[in-house]
Amino acid sequence: MAYTTINKSTDYFNPIKYTGNASSSRDITGVGFQPDFTWIKDRDGGYSHILGNAVSGNNKFLASSATSAESTDSTKFRTFVSDGFQVGNHNGVNANSNDYASWNWKAGGAVSGNTTGSGTSKAYTGSINGTSGFSIIRYQGNGTSGHTIPHRLAATPSMIIVKRLSAANNWSVYHKDAFTSQAAPGVLYLNTTAAKSNDTNVWGTSSVTINSTVFSVGDYSGTNANNSYYIAYVFAEKQGYNKFGSYVGNGNVNGTFVYTGFKPAFVLAKKTNEANTAWIMLDNKRANSFNPIGVRLFANLDAAESTSSPYCDFLSNGFKFRTTDNNSNDANDTYIYMSFAEAPLVGTNNVPANAR
After folding, report:
1. Per the CB 3.0–4.6 Å rule, which of 94, 169, 273, 325 could disulfide with 222?
2. Would you say residue 4 lies in a domain?
3. What percent of the chain has pLDDT over 70?
4. Other residues' Cβ atoms within 10 Å of the Cβ of residue 193
């Protein structure tokens, strides 16, 4: 049985929904902590996802559905506050009466240093949380394959998301279950519907190093152009709090059960072996308080929320898709996922979780 030392997952990750009011400076509170990474999406309109982080600083954001460089705009993401974050009056974050989803992660420990490996050493800064296995690292590329970036988690990452800040490039995603071999390390792109690619220059041209200290990058401009800046979101697995894995769909409304060891609060899933499939985003706040969950968003699309149901069940120890949708449960196809807990199946307090 999956015990965990993190009895209260919402101390480190918490989805929050809110309704816009069009004010020029608005605090969204109720997160339960001061986040270091917030991801916002308008549920009603076709506006971009807005991602802000504490390392990049105030008024800066990226869009997961676009290749564009980091932008500065105080009408969108503004800053973090003690119990949440602050937004402006842009329709993508705060249109009057529109509904919004936000997903919030805590890091909090400031770090800095120099990169290692091949080529010229460069400086990096970041924010880390070793307890929850999450770090935000802002680093400078050197254009040389084998450049290694300290992530400071003292645990091997299960998933890494990298975006170039100073120019337009795809969002590069490493996932442990999409890694094939050193010769074909595997990469997915968060802003596209593409299948897994074996581009060898994203994480390293001849070899890839991802361990408890560093992750490597190749000479691809999306992860390591000389003198360009990048943001990396790095996740290590913590039992009972988060889970990164894969499953094979069965093409049945009684879908494949995926064991996580906790009741999920959030699931992001993507098919790896076939193109033209979206990154599905589900959480426990937008849906009814009972199964099934029908509402979902798409990390690679500006589209409004889709509401067809049934779609997925969040159970006490995992999740199960209730659809034959190609994006999440096509027969004999492989999907990767990342998930975060609402509550552990059993924590150190010996209190078991229930299904929705």
Report:
1. 169
2. no
3. 96
4. 17
In-domain check, residue 352: no
My answer on whether omega of the bond before 310 falls inside 30° of 0, hence cis, is yes
Q: Give the rounded percent of residues in the chain with a pLDDT score beyond 90.
A: 88
Domain stops at, among 207, 236, 265: 236
Main-chain phi, psi angles of 9, to 5 degrees: -60, -30
Q: Do 24 and 92 share a structural domain?
A: yes
> What's the whole-model pTM score?
0.95
Examine the domain organization and report whether 113 and 218 are in the same domain: yes
pLDDT tens-digit map of 2-45: 567 798 999 999 999 999 999 999 999 999 999 999 999 999 98
> What domain count does the chain have?
3
Q: How far apart are CA 174 and CA 199, in angstroms?
A: 12
Gyration radius (Cα) of the chain, Å: 19
* 290 burial type by CB count under 10 A (0-12 exposed, 13-18 middle, 19+ buried): exposed
The domain containing residue 40 runs over which residues?
9-105
Residues 267 and 307 in one domain: yes
13 and 115 in a single domain? The answer is no
pLDDT given for residue 183 in this prediction: 78
Instruction: List pLDDT tens digits, range 321-335.
Output: 999 999 999 999 999
Give the residue from 270, 98, 271 showing the smallest Cα distance to 282.
Answer: 270
Tell me whether residue 168 is in a domain.
yes
Query: In DSSP terms, which residues pair with 312 in a beta bridge?
Result: 293, 321
